[in-house]
Amino acid sequence: INKILIKNGILAPALYKESYKKHNIEIQDFGDETIFKLLSKKKNNRFDYFKKIIKLLNRIQLIRYTKVRNFKKKFYVIPKYEKKILIKEANLFCDWYIKKKLSKNKRKKFSKEFKKIIKILTHELKLKNNIFVHRDFHVSNLMLVKNQIGVIDSQDALIGNKAYDLASLIDDVRFKTSKSLKQKIYNLYINKQKKLESSKFKNDFEILS
Predict the structure, then answer these.
(1) Cα(36)–Cα(139) distance, integer angstroms
(2) What is the DSSP string of 135-155?
(3) CA-to-CA distance for 143 and 82, rounded, in angstroms?
(4) 8-42: per-residue pLDDT in tens?
(5) What is the pLDDT at residue 104?
(6) What does the DSSP 8-state code read for residue 194?
(7) What predicted TM-score, i.e. pTM, was given to this entire model?
(8) Tell me, what's the pLDDT at 73?
(9) How far apart are CA 209 and CA 192, in angstroms?
(10) 26-54 burial, b for 16+ CB within 10 Å, e for fewer?
């Protein structure tokens, strides 16, 4: 995935050396200055950084070159973000969280209802699966590298819904932001888009969030 990002002009860790058969690879180190750390210290100019991040996201979403030869000399094509994958991921909520919070009897009832709702919501998505989706696009996975923003943790990228990465960025539960800042970032993204069906996008953004 990094190779694909780099070929498309996105700053991602380069591969230096690989001994894949011996279970190790050596990649570029972007240091430890995440945008999360930066924004936690600089609260006054947060929106300035989000402007740069939205610009980066727009460039990522223009990626059309999605096939690459990996270091095993095989072609890798980024898979589609099928609805069954989305449903499976959402249902992890029942496995990871609910069992810590509800008794066994309540858990069974809750899980059944939850999974039903998720299935309905997923089938309400309107946009096509035709955009590069990082799938973990938030300020902890964005790094400041010589005044540029680099992207890490990209291994789960898929070709999916245009609203997904924006939802990850704006509604990131690990990084608290005000409703007004969330709205400003959302509006900034929308205003930069051409030929966007805003009602469909808003629908999908809310479901995916």
Answers:
(1) 5
(2) S--SGGGEEEETTEEEE---T
(3) 29
(4) 999 999 999 988 889 998 999 999 999 999 999 87
(5) 87
(6) S
(7) 0.93
(8) 82
(9) 20
(10) eeeebeeebbbebbeeeeeebeebbeebb
Cα(142)–Cα(133) distance, integer angstroms: 15
pLDDT along the chain (209 residues), means of 10: 94 93 92 94 87 97 86 88 95 91 91 96 96 97 95 96 98 94 97 92 97
What pLDDT is stored for residue 209 in this prediction?
95
pLDDT of residue 68: 87
Give just the sign of the alpha carbon dihedral 86, 61, 48, 193: negative
- pLDDT at position 52 is 97
Strand spans (E) along the chain: 15-19, 24-27, 67-69, 75-77, 131-133, 142-145, 148-151, 158-160
Query: What is the number of alpha carbons within 13 Å of residue 164 lying toward its C-beta?
Result: 26
Q: How far apart are CA 83 and CA 62, in angstroms?
A: 22
The CA R_g of the chain, rounded to the nearest whole Å, is 19
HSE toward the beta carbon, residue 124, CA cutoff 13 A: 15
Non-local (6+) Cβ contacts of 88 within 8 A are none
Taking residue 154's Cβ as centre, other Cβ atoms within 10 Å add up to: 20
Which phi and psi (to 5°) does residue 111 adopt? -60, -40
Query: What is the four-CA torsion angle of 159, 9, 32, 169, rounded to 10 degrees?
Result: -40
> Would you call 21 exposed, middle or buried from its count of C-beta atoms within 10 A (0-12, 13-18, 19+)?
exposed
Strands 148-151 and 142-145, bridge-based pairing: antiparallel
